[in-house]
Automatic annotation (TrEMBL):
Organism of derivation: Pseudoxanthomonas putridarboris
Binding-site residues, ATP: 10-15, 127, 172
GO molecular function terms listed in the Swiss-Prot or TrEMBL record: AMP kinase activity
Pathway(s) per entry: Purine metabolism; AMP biosynthesis via salvage pathway; AMP from ADP: step 1/1
Record protein name field: Adenylate kinase
Main localization, broad class: cytoplasm
EC numbers on record: 2.7.4.3
SUPFAM superfamilies: P-loop containing nucleoside triphosphate hydrolases
The record's note on its domains: Consists of three domains, a large central CORE domain and two small peripheral domains, NMPbind and LID, which undergo movements during catalysis. The LID domain closes over the site of phosphoryl transfer upon ATP binding. Assembling and dissambling the active center during each catalytic cycle provides an effective means to prevent ATP hydrolysis.
Cellular localization per UniProt: Cytoplasm
Binding, AMP: 31, 36, 57-59, 85-88, 92, 133, 144
Amino acid sequence: MRLVLLGPPGSGKGTQAARLKEYLQVPHISTGDLLRAEVAAGSPLGLQAKEIMARGDFVSDEILLGMLEDRFARPDTANGFILDGYPRNLAQAGALGTLLDKIGQPMDYAVQLEVPADLLVERIAGRAAAEGRDDDTPEVVRNRLDKYTTQTAPVIDYYRQHGQLTVVDGVGTLDEVFSRLIEALSPAKEVG
């Protein structure tokens, strides 16, 4: 199964992706982790990315897509993957679809974890307090959520128009949300 997990900060994407990885027996591919690993390994794309990041610039979609193409070529993705952190905008969604078609691994689902903004702010504030971070104030969190919503709304619509989107209620215990995810990913589930 090949799927993209969508959801704002605090929605539980990372936690649920780790559980889905075990359940589905496919790798969880976080583009942030992938980027850091490629830079650390000194791969050609990693070296390009390192130079760009050293200037304080964002790594281009082309480099990220190249890293994803290399990652998808590894044997552990033969039965699928869980993609987290990409695509973040409409151009990336289109490029990802083109890449997956090219390598013969079309996307099965895009799953959006839906959580009310007030609860997201509460979750992130709790996480920040537990980790001793002072950069996750409610104002900063709301700003990040606004940016996420602005950038990601077109991606959600893209997958909805392609009949690949399913929305899962991300409120509840970890087990409740995980059960909803499994149900949403069952072959009999209607998406779109």
